[in-house]
Specification:
The chain is an alpha/beta fold and about 350 residues long. It is built from 10 helices and 15 strands. The strands form 3 sheets. It has a 7-stranded mixed sheet, sandwiched between helices. Strands 1-2-3-4-5-6 form a 6-stranded antiparallel sheet. A two-stranded parallel ribbon has the order 11-15. The protein is globular, with a radius of gyration of 19 Å.
């Protein structure tokens, strides 16, 4: 087995619990038939698919990085053993993360991205002609440089004069800045026990750091982890309930992402009501955006925010608030040396 990085909870590897390795399967003649990527989603559930090749692997001060050429999903970026995005369907995640917030805002000119080192979130924001300034704050310069070099689809975004790239902890950056933003986007890694960024999902962070940096009428949106029929109780419902304690209007929504092997969730929040209907979202998109979305339009967002009965019941009954002392995590463990909150 040619290991990319260690597996989770089985006593092998370096113990960072990232659950990713590549295994070579041999045919009867002894020749290698195929190489597979494998991620441990839960203790008794693994997700794997065939690889054409491993394009690059590396490690920064904060994270392990791999770029894989997969047979079903094209190039795939893997960080800390978690698939971040795949070439064939990353547009679903990034269109869902970015456009509902920007299109619900009356006139978004300034946007702050927490994380987003891959560049795809910035790429989607920069399609909006109203946007004058995007601040992308990621703590890991090596990941950003890696993505600049290997993810061709985002090179134009990295060169856009409206994009201001800052290498820093997003919490520290927001706390020390004096300016405010029309939209703040959380494109963070998932909250993992021992991982670097779970503190950026807490009520105290939303209340004392994020909300004060929003302009009047501002919108905050964050990725909120798995939101499937069984997986939504991991962190999605808790993040939703936490934002309800901080903002007057909160909208959870979700979409199926094939390469994640699950439905994924986002939560959008503001102190200004979300009153834009599907038709107006489409009108704003045509007027404000360059090019057409592949996935998201008004009707798609209306559908995405109409959650299934089982998820709605959980969200309605959720009482836990995400704090440093009562944090919830998705399956897996972060490396012990990553002690800083990461964005």
């Amino acid at each position: 087995m040619g290991e990319i990085s260690s597996s989770n909870g089985n006593g092998h590897g370096n113990g960072n619990g990232n659950g990713v390795h590549a295994s070579a399967h041999l045919g009867g003649d002894g020749r290698r038939k195929s190489c597979w990527y494998e991620e441990e989603i839960e203790q008794d559930l693994r997700w794997c698919f065939a690889l054409n090749s491993i394009l690059h692997t590396g490690a920064s001060q904060y994270q392990d990085i791999a770029l894989l050429d997969t047979k079903p999903f094209g190039k795939a970026l893997v960080i800390d053993g978690k698939l971040q995005s795949a070439e064939i369907d990353e547009f679903i995640y990034h269109e869902s993360l970015v456009h509902p917030a920007l299109l619900h805002h009356l006139n978004p000119k300034t946007v702050f991205i927490m994380g987003g080192g891959e560049g795809s979130t910035a790429r989607e924001i920069l399609r909006h002609v109203t946007v004058e300034k995007v601040v992308m704050c990621d703590i890991d310069e090596e990941v950003v440089d890696f993505c600049k070099s290997y993810l061709v689809v985002n090179r134009e975004a990295f060169c856009d004069s409206r994009l201001h790239l800052i290498i820093n902890d997003a919490r520290a950056e927001l706390q020390t800045r004096q300016d405010c933003f029309d939209v703040i986007i959380g494109d963070l890694a998932d909250p993992i026990e021992g991982g670097p960024c779970y503190q950026l999902y807490t009520k105290s962070f939303y209340e004392s750091t994020v909300k004060p940096r929003l302009n009047e009428g501002g919108v905050f949106v964050t990725q909120a982890g798995p939101a499937g029929v069984f997986s939504h109780t991991e962190v999605f419902s808790c993040i939703y309930n936490t934002l309800r304690q901080v903002f007057k209007y909160v909208v959870p929504y979700s979409a199926h992402i094939p390469s994640y092997a699950d439905t994924w969730g986002w939560v959008m929040a503001s102190d200004t009501p979300f009153t834009v209907d599907a038709e107006e979202l489409d009108t704003r998109a045509k007027r404000r955006m360059k090019g057409e979305n592949r996935y998201l339009d008004g009707k798609t967002f209306a559908s995405a925010s109409m959650l299934s009965k089982v998820v709605r019941k959980t969200l309605a009954k959720e009482t836990q608030v995400y704090t440093e002392g009562t944090a919830k995590f998705i399956y897996g463990h972060g490396a012990g040396h990553r002690s800083q909150p990461h964005a």
